[in-house]
Amino acid sequence: MRLRHRSEDGLTLVELIVTVAILAILASAAVPVARFQVKREKERELHYDLWQMRAAIDAYKDAADRGAFQTKLDSQGYPPDLETLVNGVDVQGKKVRFLRRIPVDPMTNSTDWGLRSMQDDPDSDSWGGQSVFDVYTKSDGTALDGTKYKDW
């Protein structure tokens, strides 16, 4: 029979501490990468939502300019609000919708978007209420590229 030495029975305390320390260092390096990925995905979603709403505003304006439906004179052919894009307008007896739903702002988790009309200043944060010329997020955050989200 062979006798085992006590040092060969398992991991020593030093080996266990070194292993836990290495795992902690690797985990601490993974957390910022994961946060970076989450922020980048939210920014990608914000870009897409803004593009989708702006395309719907442009489609509404194009249809109004072609005379497909009547608009208010002071609106200059832009929709009165975002709900009009979702609810649609009657065009020759058919309901035409320009947007399926108002997207949720990924930065504020709300459907409350900032709106601008033609009569508003380009840098204004308050909407005059005449029509919707542009949309922006109400988030005060800064993007990964250093720009403000509300300036997109």
List the SSEs and their pairings.
Layout: H1 13-65, H2 82-87, E1 89-91, E2 94-96, E3 114-116, E4 134-136
Antiparallel strand pairs: 1-2, 3-4
Characterization of the model:
There is one protein chain. This protein is mostly helical. The protein has one domain (12-151). 39% of the residues lie in helices and 8% in strands. The protein has 2 helices and 4 strands; from the N terminus they run ααββββ. The protein has helices at 13-65, 82-87; strands at residues 89-91, 94-96, 114-116, 134-136. The strands form 2 sheets. It has a two-stranded antiparallel ribbon. Strands 3-4 form a two-stranded antiparallel ribbon. Strand 1 (89-91) and strand 2 (94-96) form a beta hairpin. The longest helix is centred in the N-terminal third of the chain and has 53 residues, at 13-65. It is elongated and about 90 Å long. The termini are far apart. The model has no long low-confidence stretch (mean pLDDT 88).
Keywords:
single chain; 152 residues; mainly alpha; two-stranded antiparallel sheet; two-stranded antiparallel ribbon; 2 helices; 8% strand
Give a quick summary of the entry:
It contains two helices and four strands. The chain has 152 residues and is mainly alpha-helical.
Number of helices: 2
Q: Helix-strand pattern, N to C?
A: HHEEEE
Average of per-residue pLDDT values? 88
In helices, the fraction of residues equals 25-40%
Q: Which range does the strand content fall in?
A: 5-15%
Strand order of the largest sheet: 1-2
Distance between the termini: 78 Å
Number of strands: 4
State Rg. Answer: 27 Å
Q: Structural class of the secondary structure composition?
A: mainly alpha
Number of domains: 1
- Unreliable spans are none
Coarse morphology: elongated
Largest sheet entry: 2 strands, antiparallel
